[in-house]
Amino acid sequence: MKKLLTGLLVLGLVGGGAGWVLTAPKTLPSDTFAGIAGDAAKGEAVFWATGCASCHMAAEAKGEDQLKLPGGQRFETAFGTFLSPNISPDPAHGIGGWTLEQFANAIQKGVSPEGQHYYPALPYAAYQNMVPQDVADLYAFMQTLPAVETASLPHEVGFPYNIRRSLGGWKLLFLPSGWAVGGDLSEAEQRGRYIAEAMAHCGECHTPRNALGGQTRSAWLAGAPNPSGEGNIPNITPAKLTWSEDEIVEYLTSGFTPEFDSVGGHMSHVVENMARLPESDRQAVAAYLKKVSPVE
């Protein structure tokens, strides 16, 4: 019995140690941004494409106030309520004291400057596919925004989801790699994929998830229950989204559908962001959506 207990203890220690190593936060290679300088002017387009303001501005902010990013918006999910943090350049309450590398590790690896896992409410699963130059440009632009002296509020997440280290296991199991839509794509379709899958992170809302919040990639963009519990987010694969490419472009520009309806809810922010991009980018997204595998 003593040998058995000793053996179980050793196995427990080995297993615990292995789990601790496997769930440790992983950061980008140290030379990721070697020789890269951020361009704030180009970063503005990246800022709108990535939708930073939509979640981090004050609720109901309009006009220039959308460039103030104090956080505080509440996002209710089955795992708890997540509150967007202050990401203004304020050095005390925002990200003004972050380096480019710390910023990149946050949005692409889900790792804080203190070395803790971030919850995937931050869409690093999508942002991980952004190229370093765009990340550097985004960082440069965000440093030009107004600093807001508003403290970030803590998430309202209970046990066991409040165990940050467990997110390392979630990342091992569910963090996707590569593109959801492959195959032989034209240059425009590749651009649309980059915008939709990486920067605009369309799959974060439009793709269904399993019980632990991992995306069901076999049903990419096939629609999902609204995390708040109110209604559903629509299927935008060609099986259900039968609009022409021109009609999709018009929707992403004006918010009006071919049926003379208008965009509502959080999608209105997405349309506002898309409308700020060059029309060629909206055309690229429309071309990409036609290449997504149809899911009934």
From TrEMBL:
The record's InterPro entries line, in alphabetical order, gives: Cyt_c-like_dom (IPR009056), Cyt_c-like_dom_sf (IPR036909), Cytochrome_c-type_DH (IPR051459)
Q: Where is the signal peptide?
A: none
Q: Where is the Cytochrome c domain?
A: 38-146, 187-293
Protein keywords = Heme, Iron, Metal-binding
Keyword Cell division listed? The answer is: no
User: Under the GO molecular function aspect, what terms does this record hold?
Assistant: electron transfer activity; heme binding; metal ion binding
- Please give the start and end residues of each transmembrane region: none
Among PANTHER family, the record links this protein to: ALCOHOL DEHYDROGENASE CYTOCHROME C SUBUNIT, BLL4482 PROTEIN-RELATED
Instruction: Specify the protein name.
Output: Diheme cytochrome c-type
**Gene label:** cycG
